[in-house]
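Handout for the seminar on molecular recognition.
Each group receives one record of this type.
Step one: identify the two inputs.
Step two: read the structure output and locate the region that could contact 5-hydroxymethyl-3,4-dihydroxypiperidine.
Step three: write two sentences on what you found, then compare them with the reference statements printed after the record.
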Amino acid sequence: MKEYQFKEGFLWGGACSAVQCEGRSPEDGKQDNIWDQWYREDPGAFYQGVGPEVTSDFYHNYEQLIKMMRECGITSFRTSLQWARIISDRDGTVNRKGIGFYHRVIDALLDNGIEPILCLNHFDMPMYWMEKGGFECRETVDAFAAFARVCYGEFSGKVRRWVTFNEPVITPEQGYLYLHHYPLVQDGRRAAQVAYYIQLASSMAVEAYRQMGCSGQIGIVLNLTPTYCRNPEDERDRKAAYAADLFFNRSFLDPSVKGEYPADLVRILEENQAVPVHMEQELETIRRNTVDYLGVNYYHPRRVVHRSRPLESGTFMPDRYFEYYTPENCRMNKSRGWEIYEKGLYDIGVNIRDHYGNIPWMVTENGMGVQDEEQFLNEEGMVEDGYRVEFIKDHLRWLHKAIEEGCNCFGYHMWCPFDSWSWSNAYKNRYGFIRIDINDHARPSFKRSAAWFRRVSDGNRFTD
Ligand code: IFM
């Protein structure tokens, strides 16, 4: 039997986002965000027509869920602050009731011995800014920095770890290229502008944190997806992987950690007349305001090969430079259609160690979404999710090896401690240690994996 021991103080916990757990709950004056709007326009776009109305009902049920999370061994929890719950309009009017809700959540977390980690943006653009163009509009960037200041002013006395954006690449990628998120646009140039303004907004939020003299740490959460090419002997395949890495990993990793965009990414954007509108002073803000730490969301690798024929597309798409392929015999999480490749986590750690100054980082999301979990209910009504325990162990082994080899990882968070709503997939895939019955939100229940995670967290170790 092998024992995997983690260092004292290693963070064991979980993450969710405001929209995915709170429910719309507009009774405190929350304004609509893009998810509320999209659901109103097209409920059929959401799995089984389930929209953001109720989600896990955390807004009403947070005390119970927080207590249950602690019982699962969760000692730190990341959620996000909904911009549209805290700020009511484009004039920046602060909604005291929204602020009050987040104070109550933070206090409940602290009372239960859970460290809160707050994220300022998790895909939840308020409609009052979307109407102006969202992150295509420079004014939105200033408004985001102002929102960040309000949040630090209110909560930084209680919260020591902050995150500017969760998975910032998702907005340009899914909202402006691949038609999976609102506003469902396909335009490479607009995507590049949105990506640049989100990076600027993140850097300005870091700047504000330091200007206000907050004494904790501020980071960014990136969904780093290690990119592997089919044939490393083939230069065309290596180039394909290099380009995909530039678009989907380094577009935020380099400016956030090094303060600079990769020269080759800039060259590709120039070749495609897709360089965003920018000012020298903004680039200076990005240069000067790099993050204190990095959050890494890891689910699956990216497998690419060189293009066999040119992409036929009216607009500039990153896919001009590569094609996807699925290796034979790879293991898949069939519910999600995502490859399971645990070593990717180790490769990420080594890359951060060797190319990004070994900046402190933590796994901010990892997890296994499983469809139709009802089939695993035992006679007592508990989900027997041994597959989840195996999934986590397989990833932790590689993480442990990375740490033994000098990688500076300080924590591991699961997505998500309780079942949560997932964008257009709604409640299709379940991730939690705690099951949410969407017909009876008041009766969440533990899955088998909950007790296992509690033992890992209590002992700071697990055994094979
Ligand atoms: O639900 C999402 C989350 O919002 C961001 N990371 C991946 C999760 C699972 O798909």
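Reference statements: The radius of gyration is 21 Å. The longest strand covers residues 115-121.
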